[in-house]
Specification:
With 196 residues, the chain is an all-beta fold. The protein contains no helices and 17 strands. The protein has a domain of 95 residues. It starts with a strand and ends with a strand.
């Protein structure tokens, strides 16, 4: 894997699909799927740097998700062109990519991290169900959280410092739905607010 800095990233037309995060020092990290199907990053640390290509053209099959740790480590996830969940991670240098399996994914993933560095990744399966994989001393899952045909969009996730997870999605009824984890899974709850 080579990191190409100072090159110009292809520009997307239409809606940008970005993933962004910030660390405890205020450094910002932005990732996107280029129009070429590659993975790109730009970052802010005392000034803007990049863009840098992290994965070659034609290698990623969705917009990425990122979990940024307090100290600035980054875990980036995407749906590969093979339908599986993939990851790269930064801890002093870029590592990976690693195929985490779990396919076929129906959507790109959503990700979060807690203060202990545990990571949580959610996606809409190809079956229309809600799925999760998590890292705590090693990768666990995948686990199905919602049955096939029950979610109508890629999910979004918020993770607090204690590892509680709040997962949102557009239901097949067009409303906003949520599940949350606090020692066990709760919900799903229809939050209304439709049509999304």
């Amino acid at each position: 894997m080579s990191l190409e800095t100072g090159t110009t990233a292809p520009q997307n037309s239409g809606t940008a699909e970005l993933a962004a995060g910030v660390d405890s020092a205020g450094n910002q990290y932005v990732f996107w799927q280029g129009a070429d199907g590659g993975l790109w990053e730009k970052w802010y640390s005392g000034g803007w740097h990049g863009p840098a290509r992290l994965m070659a053209a034609g290698t990623i099959g969705s917009a990425p998700a990122v979990a940024v740790h307090g100290a600035g480590e980054q875990d980036v996830f995407w749906k590969g062109t093979d339908g599986n969940l993939w990851e790269m991670w930064y801890s002093g240098a870029w590592n990976g990519p690693a195929n985490l399996g779990s396919g076929p994914l129906g959507s790109g993933p959503a990700a979060g991290v807690d203060s202990a560095g545990n990571q949580y990744v959610f996606w809409q399966g190809a079956d229309g169900g809600l799925w999760e994989k998590w890292y705590s001393g090693g990768w666990h899952g995948p686990a199905r959280l919602m049955a096939a045909g029950t979610i109508g969009s890629a999910p979004a996730v918020a993770v607090d410092s204690a590892g509680n997870q709040y997962v949102f999605w557009k239901g097949t009824d067009g409303n906003l739905w949520e599940m949350w984890y606090s020692g066990g899974w709760n919900g799903p709850a229809n939050l209304g607010s439709g049509p999304l």
